[in-house]
Write a structure and sequence with these properties.
alpha+beta, Arc Repressor Mutant, subunit A, 3-stranded antiparallel sheet, 4 helices, elongated
């Protein structure tokens, strides 16, 4: 069984072994959200660090309020940002467990954050215009 559908309507496919595959707008949304997450996570991290130093778990908790991420997502990004000179890190002893590695943004990271924020705001304004039915002039 296969149904052709318009936006947001559930699609059901019958796979030969009898298993059903359900592809709805949430599934497609997750794919889009995943792609958007990859493209914006660096901007989110740099923006948070512009407001103050944070340790990795704090970053995960803050960003998780907006999108689903895990520590396994954030730490490879932090290494890339550190290798690129956008952030630096330092260790602080913790009374609640092991020492924590705090991240701080560098001058280079602040420049990158400003450039990415400008690009994001321009891009999102353009997309919102299309979604709102505005035509380019």
């Amino acid at each position: 069984m296969q149904n052709k559908v318009a936006c947001g309507i559930i699609q059901t496919y019958k796979i030969p072994c009898g298993t059903k595959y359900l592809a709805n707008k949430e599934k497609r949304g997750n794919t889009m959200q995943s792609q958007l997450k990859r493209g914006t996570l660096e901007l989110c991290v740099l923006s948070i660090l512009c407001r103050g130093d944070r340790y990795g778990y704090e970053l995960v908790n803050i960003i998780s309020g907006c999108m689903h991420i895990t520590e396994g997502t954030i730490y490879p990004l932090m290494k890339r940002l550190k290798d690129a000179g956008s952030i630096d890190s330092y260790i602080v002893e913790s009374q609640e467990g092991p020492p924590r590695k705090y991240y701080t943004i560098t001058d280079s990271g602040r420049t990158i954050q400003r450039e990415q924020e400008t690009e994001w705001r321009s891009f999102s304004t353009a997309i919102n215009s299309i979604l709102d039915g505005e035509e380019p002039k």
